[in-house]
Specification:
Rossmann fold, 20 strands, alpha+beta
Length: about 375
Amino acid sequence: MKSVFGARVTPEKRTGVIEERRGSLEFRYSVGQPDTYVFTADIYGYRENIHPDRHLGWWRFELPPGRGRAILQMNFQQLGHESVQVTGSGFNLLPTDSWFNPEYAFDPLADLLLVVRDASGKKRRIEPALLKFVDRDVLRSFYDRQYASEGYTAPEDAPFLHELHKYKLARLKDLFARHITGGRILDVGCGRSLFTEIEGKFPFTVYAGDLNFESVRDRAAAVPDQRWGVFDAAELPFRNEQFDGLFAGEVIEHVADVHETLQEWRRVLKPGGVAIITTPNKQRLAALVDGVESPYSRDHLNELSYRELTRVSLPNSGFSFVEQSCLYVELWLQNLLNRHRVEDFLQREGNISDYVPVMRRLFPLGRWVPQISLALIIVARKK
């Protein structure tokens, strides 16, 4: 008769927060004697299960036989054998073995895998959790690496993103024209600044800024007619009530504290000033079907749902909701039976331009069902 492997290690929550490279995650366990199983905590870059380059390390532990609760304690201020420990009621465990990568480059997000193997070393259970590194130095370093190593993807290599971007520009052009009729507008976390990609002239002056000095310098040289600066979107170097409008394109999901950042944006807006915010939807259809928090990118610390942004975060920060113009609904889902791997066919890597007509038909659907749309475009006004 075939024996049943019973060892289990399950996280209490699927998300852990690491502040200043220190944090913890509680888990439940049910194990036998140490010679019947192998338990390791593995940490990889988010959605990058690549050894050794994107593997932070693994740490092996022998848990007390039986059932119980314990806490995985993590301290990566100095990476080493004791960077991960396990504490519980009456015990404090150091790893029995470990491997770690001193060359690992920390990203804002990482995948924690609680792996249980049988005595022969065969993987029997893998329980994932998401680690969020809430650290401005980590975020700044990530963007410096991104700017140094990556260009912008060619349209033929990513037709979905290219077509979605074009559609988004058209929607934003309409919103800018209707809601900001003059004065000055602040483009926070600007990147290349979408205002430089929209055809036509605006009746307002754009002040754009980002964290990366090289990026801002290069864009200022390419587009000298626009005002540029280097600043943190969450700590603006401007006096109160200086701007008639504010644009935050794919910014709010990167900040450590959404409420404080929204209050900072409100501070620099004049009374009645308008904020236009774009951000991925935390509860887009694929994420809802997947059933776990699945950030769209490895630098998204705080994705928000449509309801969270419009009914909680904005009102609590002194804004009133004006309108939405959300984008796309993921109707062509794949891997529905593969846990944590549900994906949209039209967004997969290596897709071809033959599907562009289908993409264009689906982009407007987000306005009809914003709750499950892929991308949120929200207009809010300072109360």
